[in-house]
Amino acid sequence: MTSTTFTPPQSLVIATRESRLALWQAEHVRDWLRSLYPQCDVRIFGMTTQGDQILDKSLAKIGGKGLFVKELEIAMEQGHADLAVHSLKDVPMELPPGFALAAVMEREDPRDAWVSPRHASLDELPHGAVVGTSSLRRESQLRARYPHLRVQALRGNLDTRLRKLDEGQYAGILLAAAGLKRLGLGERVRAVISTGDMLPAVGQAALGIEIRADRPDLLQALSPLNHLPTALCVQAERAVSRGLGGSCTTPIGAYATLEGDDMLLRAVLGLPDGSRALHATSRARVIEPSQAEALGLQVAQQLRDQGADALLAQLGGH
Ligand SMILES: NCc1[nH]cc(CCC(=O)O)c1CC(=O)O
């Protein structure tokens, strides 16, 4: 910190999608900001995005999860909001020019969860049982491990997905444990899947706060919300995906953990049909962002050396 005095913000408007999870996350940030800055008027500006409206097509087909963040960026551009709260998992690997990630908050449980009315785990599912997920990453890892199961698309926000499960269309579904826990739906989880069995999505379970790059005042005001270990881990994960030219819909799993300053980074890139998967693991001493970035790029290179580019080219149809 320099000796310049910090003026706390007087008002802050948080842009968010209006799903229950998105609102919970925005309220979580609002509550943090209110306790940090009791004099500040912190408000939530809820918006419906294209990603919320188009539910009949896969995310990969409609141009990826960037659709969830674009409207929020426009709101910041037009001055209707100061910051946007996102599930980091839904944030494109490269932000558009003029925007920046101001803070990454402490990660929740990063694992995927098995939710099912009748089956305690994936292991006990009979041949041909239908598992619901629209994530190519989950599909690819699921099919590789359980080739006897069927995978069927499942889109919509958390409540919609749980409703579709309850309507009986699926033996069970895969969801991020973090989202269920945040909404108080943790009791619906039958089993959490270890990261050794299924690598989470880049940034899963972490919240990212986005601002306009020309707002250094906000960068400073939001810095207490930044959780450095989480920020370093997700930077490494995002670098893997960026290094492969991936997007939020590429079937990449990447998960970094830090013990002290020792970062372990694991990644997988697989075809959705489960027929091929590339794995890479690396570790390094990481105490600052550039080292996390370098580790991520190194893991991306390891995947490249095994033929990631050809595998990604095969995915072109998605
Ligand atoms: N793609 C939707 C989405 N974005 C973030 C979460 C969960 C919370 C998180 O990972 O932070 C979810 C739901 C899911 O994957 O089950």
UniProtKB/TrEMBL annotation:
PROSITE patterns in the record: PORPHOBILINOGEN_DEAM (PS00533)
Top-level taxon in the UniProt lineage: Bacteria
Coiled coil: none
Modified residues (S-(dipyrrolylmethanemethyl)cysteine): 248
Chemical reaction(s) catalysed: 4 porphobilinogen + H2O = hydroxymethylbilane + 4 NH4(+)
UniProt-listed SUPFAM superfamilies: Periplasmic binding protein-like II, Porphobilinogen deaminase (hydroxymethylbilane synthase), C-terminal domain
Domain Porphobilinogen deaminase C-terminal: 231-304
Record's keyword annotation contains Heme: no
Cellular-component GO terms for this entry: cytoplasm
Cofactor comment: Binds 1 dipyrromethane group covalently.
GO biological process, one term: protoporphyrinogen IX biosynthetic process
Entry cofactors: dipyrromethane
Domain Porphobilinogen deaminase N-terminal: from-to ranges: 12-218
UniProt keyword terms in alphabetical order: Porphyrin biosynthesis, Transferase
Pathway terms, separated by semicolons: Porphyrin-containing compound metabolism; protoporphyrin-IX biosynthesis; coproporphyrinogen-III from 5-aminolevulinate: step 2/4
GO molecular function (one): hydroxymethylbilane synthase activity
Catalytic activity, EC: 2.5.1.61
The protein's assembly and partners: Monomer.
Further remark: The porphobilinogen subunits are added to the dipyrromethane group.
Family assignment from sequence similarity: Belongs to the HMBS family.
Function according to Swiss-Prot or TrEMBL: Tetrapolymerization of the monopyrrole PBG into the hydroxymethylbilane pre-uroporphyrinogen in several discrete steps.
Record-given protein name: Porphobilinogen deaminase
Organism: Thiomonas bhubaneswarensis
